[in-house]
Design brief:
By secondary structure, the protein is α/β, with parallel strands linked by helices. It contains 13 helices and 6 strands.
Length: 335
């Protein structure tokens, strides 16, 4: 005997109305953000033009903004503090072509971007924040960890200019890898003697931040992934799948120097995955060995003749010296 399903006769109407209201809410939010950006840009424009018309020098500009903020806060509220007015003025100065302002980003995003003096660096973070839909917190983290400089150091002058203009576009395996990886979010003291197991567990406990550091396209598959060969079990620390490159990415963690047998073992893992686990449309897997230290010459010889895609990168538990990285990038641009 068939049982009749209780179906709300209004369900179709409810679905239509829900879709309409949710769409309207999205549009309202988008339009509010657009109006805020346009208004703040115009405020900055008016301030700059007033200064230029009155030939107001820089030393008097601060006093102008202070006096102006006192009046505007009384009339319009705290959003027009001297600090905010300073950034509105800077907003216009750095984006005088209003069409370069993307309404996909909020004022909070631009507030962070305006803190970057270098135009190439600022352009990169703006493009990347739009492409990867970064929150303000994610944008701040990537700025602090010097993502632009870390990516730029692996490129020539033209590559750096393209990076600033288009953002970091992943087309092949080399675009996937950073050196070093910055894992400051693990909050492991630099001189603390930790084990590989502890390092792995901390990464799992902070998986969202680790995925953010890895970059766009990574999907977590598993930890301590078991591979059985000749009745012997091996375990890969972390396994991901990259949806853009359509391949598995295997990561092994080492807290000491890389040894030649570590590279041989990763090569074995890659062979196993390509033969046993790859589907028809999967590309060959990629292996990344993350180590606190590495001997580049030894790594070069250990990988001689290996056709599989293996990368050895350093990781560090503290934020990089951004000024040093900026200087190295500038040296490339000056060549």
């Amino acid at each position: 005997m068939k049982t009749l399903k209780n179906k709300n006769p209004l369900s179709s109407l409810i679905k239509q109305i829900r879709s309409l209201v949710e769409g309207a809410r999205v549009n309202v939010t988008r339009n509010i953000n657009k109006e805020i950006l346009q208004t703040y840009w115009q405020v900055g424009k008016h301030i700059v033009e007033f200064e230029q018309k009155g030939n107001i020098k820089a030393e008097y500009g601060k006093q102008l903004l202070l006096n102006l903020s006192k009046e505007l806060v009384l009339e319009l509220g705290k959003g027009f503090s001297r600090s905010n007015l300073t950034y509105m003025r800077l907003f216009y100065q750095r984006y005088q072509k209003g069409e370069t302002v993307s309404h996909k980003l909020s004022w909070s995003h631009y507030f962070e971007l305006l803190k970057i003096d270098d135009e190439l660096e600022r352009s990169f973070y703006q493009r990347q924040a739009i492409t990867e839909n970064w929150t303000t917190r994610e944008l701040k983290r990537h700025k602090t960890s010097a993502l632009f400089q870390r990516l730029a150091l692996s490129k020539d002058k033209q590559g750096i200019l393209a990076l600033a203009k288009k953002g970091h576009i992943i087309k092949n395996d080399t675009d996937l890898v950073k050196d070093p990886y910055v894992l400051e979010f693990l909050n492991i003291p630099e001189k603390y003697k930790y084990s590989e197991k502890e390092l792995e567990q901390n990464i799992i406990d902070n998986l969202q931040e680790f995925l953010l550091e890895l970059g766009k396209g990574f999907a977590f598959i598993g930890r301590q992934y078991r591979v059985t060969l000749n009745n012997k079990h091996y375990r890969i620390d972390l396994v991901f799948y990259h949806r853009i490159l359509k391949c598995f990415v295997l990561i092994d963690l080492k807290i000491n120097d890389i040894e030649h047998h570590d590279i041989g073992q990763m090569n074995m893992y890659l062979g196993y995955f390509e033969t046993e686990l790859n589907e028809k449309n999967d590309n060959p897997p990629i292996g990344i060995i993350l180590s606190a230290e590495k001997d580049s010459v030894m790594v070069e010889y250990a990988m001689h003749g290996i056709s599989n895609k293996i990368f050895v990168s350093k990781y560090q538990l503290y934020l990089p010296d951004k000024k040093t990285l900026q200087r190295k990038v500038q040296e490339i641009l000056d060549k």
